[in-house]
Design goal:
The protein is of the alpha+beta class and 293 residues long. Among the domains are: 53 residues, no CATH class; 110 residues, no CATH class. The protein has eight helices and 21 strands. It has a three-stranded antiparallel β-sheet, with no helix packed on it. It is globular, with a radius of gyration of 23 Å. The mean pLDDT is 83.
């Protein structure tokens, strides 16, 4: 049967669930496709992989959109471009309307149209369905929903193609069962009630469990950025950066500002400019070593 998932009480209380819950479309090495349970041993072993593995959405010169191999020569020659190249999805902050614009052809009022996820929070219900909601939505504080940014990625040590998104509190269980954070090193931090970082460290992915057990947070290096203002530091979602920059926060380039020196600035042992100078000195020293080899 078909139901309105946003209104049907049976679905909202879990009496009804999606027919695809716990299942995934996969393909084998010969390209044959199947729908299997996510606990299928062939999927967990890597024998079967998600259907979209190795594929990307592209657009040809006539505007036709389709999937093709990431190695398709037409992408390299420019005959095909990625589907979202030159596109931006914005939300009208007055009406709430969401629309996709062509950066090269369309014009819009930047005071009215903002990034579609700016100031919004993605929550996930117990059936795995996502909702993009306002910060004051009562569901955010409900035990029946999980905030998407509270989920972290882990992968199988023996097969990095298999990944899951889990709560930070589940890390120890998954690490014990042979899963691991997919990056060799990661940034962990603690923050105060205003979001300012109190402590920050760079750790190996094998050493983070004791910190997580003591309420340290884990940074998504791809989806988050560090910003600074008045010697305060915060870790924010990348799509929030423009909003903070309007309030004079500056993005921190971690290539030229080492984590250990950020901690010294927070502790007021050195200034931000001194931290940058020390970090650049280390970068230049490492470059000279590489050249001398």
């Amino acid at each position: 049967m078909y139901v309105d998932t946003s209104k049907d009480e049976r679905f909202l209380r879990g009496e009804l669930v999606s027919v695809t819950k716990g299942r995934i479309v996969v393909k084998d090495k010969d390209g044959n496709t199947y729908s299997v349970n996510t606990s299928d041993p062939r999927y967990l072993s890597g024998e079967l992989v998600p259907y979209s593995t190795g594929l990307v959405n592209v657009r040809d010169k006539d505007g036709n959109v389709f999937k093709t191999s990431v190695d398709d020569e037409r992408i390299k020659t420019g005959e095909l471009v990625y589907e979202n190249i030159g596109k931006v999805t914005l939300r009208n902050k007055i009406t709430g309307e969401v629309r996709t614009f062509d950066k090269n052809k369309d014009t819009y009022d930047e005071n009215v149209w903002i990034h579609h996820s700016l100031g919004r929070i993605i929550i996930i219900d117990k059936n795995g369905i996502k909702y993009n909601v306002a910060p004051d939505d009562p569901r955010i504080n409900s035990k029946d929903y999980i905030i998407s940014t509270n989920l972290y990625t882990v992968c199988r040590i023996d097969n990095n193609k298999i990944t899951k998104r889990i709560l930070l509190s589940e890390f120890k269980k998954y690490y014990t069962d042979g899963w691991i954070y997919p990056f060799k090193t990661c940034i962990i931090y603690q923050k105060d009630s205003e979001g300012n970082i109190l402590k920050i460290q760079h750790k190996s992915n094998k050493d983070i469990i004791p910190f997580i057990e003591n309420n340290w947070l884990l940074s998504f290096t791809k989806n988050e950025v560090f910003i600074t203002k008045d010697n305060n530091f915060r870790c924010i979602r990348r799509n929030q950066l423009k909003h903070y920059q309007r309030d004079n926060w500056q993005k921190v380039d971690l290539r030229y500002l080492k984590i250990e020196y950020i901690q010294e600035v927070i502790d007021k042992h050195i200034t931000l400019e001194e931290a940058k100078a020390k970090s650049i000195e280390i970068v230049n020293r490492n470059r000279r070593k590489e050249k001398s080899k």
